[in-house]
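Figure caption, in words: inputs first, then the predicted bound structure.
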Amino acid sequence: MRAEAVTDPGLARVENEDAYLLDLEAGFFAVADGMGGHRAGAVASRLAVETIAAGAAGLRDAADLAALVRLANMTVLEQASRNDDEAGMGTTLTAALIREGRAYLAHVGDSRAYLYRDGQLSRLTDDHSLVGEMVRLGALSDEEARRHPSRNVLTRALGTSPEVDIDLREADLQAGDVLLLCTDGLFGLLTDAELAAALALEPALAVRRLLETALSRGAPDNVTAVLVSYD
Ligand code: CA
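Bound structure (calcium ion present):
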């Protein structure tokens, strides 16, 4: 397994409120995209990633992963309740645990996981956003969702409530598969064909291509990607 990651504030924002985890030894990877004023978004995403990173060694299966994400939820929520500047902060979290040829995914929010296999890109996560729900109901196309003024409104986030509804999913991996975890600052700017073309490259080149493409389009949001190449 090889993995590469990239994160960048983009060209319009000073703060980078995205965070990521790349732990090759534990086979554990994640992206998080924070929200909240006064830099609280950056606090939320980092706290979520640090919390799951600290539990990486004990992870065996989907149940462990779900428990760890619930712990991250409580950790962000408790931090938010202690500090007025951080009240209401939250984060997306899309995490992948890779164990013996299987990927276990845990997902909350509108970051995404994709699988690239045999030249084809498929999405492994649903966007927990207002526009994501509208696309699933057939009320918006993907393209309309991409430009919708309310595209940043989340319907689920980590750290905003004691109960969090986590999407869990498993996928068998094959040699040559590439897993991509990324925030909306990336996938909002690239078509699926462009993502797929980048994922065909060697991992270090692939993440560089993804970031350069986002920057070439003005990168109005923070850009983060974690790429795992499975052999
Ligand atoms: Ca974002």
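DSSP finds seven helices and eleven strands in the chain.
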